[in-house]
Design goal:
Strands 7-8-6-5-4-3-2-1-9 form a nine-stranded mixed beta sheet, sandwiched between helices. It is globular. Strand 3 and strand 4 form a beta hairpin. It contains six helices and nine strands. By secondary structure, the protein is of the alpha+beta class. The chain has one domain: Gcn5-related N-acetyltransferase (GNAT) (Aminopeptidase). Helix 1 (23-30) packs across helix 3.
């Protein structure tokens, strides 16, 4: 049986399990065109976001995904999400993330990505994590590069973004590269869990 998704305390933020009452905060920032312009998010109603949230909570519970709410420690209100949309029996997982615009440029997603990797790679015995970034989304590319990902190439017309086929770059990090990148950052999980995560 899949273990409960942990809460991970970081610098000024936490990664915590998503909750049904996160829907309004999630809808608020995915309604911001500057947040979604360089993503494949469609135009979403409040009901659409509620359905997406319900699906994500369900797949998190089965272990098919592990997407966290990114929340400020002093408020615990959702300001973004980060984690794995999907994992494969072949030893890979897809990383995804987004953040409300008022919190850009603070290193929040950089922390969240590192913590997600430090939980997911050893816990799921992953050999590879990859992420898809719309061509032109320079902010997202920089997040992945700082985390040690390598740009593998361009997938042409890979996803439909609000009716238009768009090109996406694929970035990846392998298990041995994650180990190497770990020497340059503080691990959230190592051979034994530390005090940061709360279940």
């Amino acid at each position: 049986m899949e273990q409960p998704q942990p809460t991970i305390e970081l610098r000024g933020i936490r990664l915590r399990p998503l909750r049904p009452d996160d829907a309004a905060a999630w809808h608020a920032y995915v309604s911001d065109p500057e947040v979604t312009d360089l993503t494949s998010y469609p135009s979403m109603s409040a009901a659409d976001v509620e359905a997406m949230l319900e699906r994500t909570i369900g797949t998190n519970a089965t272990g098919a995904s592990c997407r966290w709410a990114v929340a400020l420690q002093d408020e615990n209100r959702l300001i973004g999400t980060c984690g794995f949309n999907e994992r494969s029996p072949h030893g890979w997982a897809e990383l995804a993330y987004e953040l409300a615009r008022p919190y850009w440029g603070r290193g929040i997603i950089t922390q969240a990505v590192a913590a997600s990797l430090d939980w997911g790679v050893p816990r799921w015995t992953l050999n590879r994590v990859h992420a898809f970034v719309m061509v032109g989304n320079v902010r997202s590319e920089r997040v992945l590069e700082r985390a040690g990902f390598t740009r593998e190439g361009c997938l042409r017309s890979f996803r439909i973004s609000r009716g238009v086929p768009r090109d996406f770059s694929v970035f990846s990090i392998l298990r041995q590269e994650w180990h190497g990148a770990g020497s340059q950052r503080s691990r959230v999980f190592d051979a034994a869990p530390r005090a940061h995560p709360k279940v």
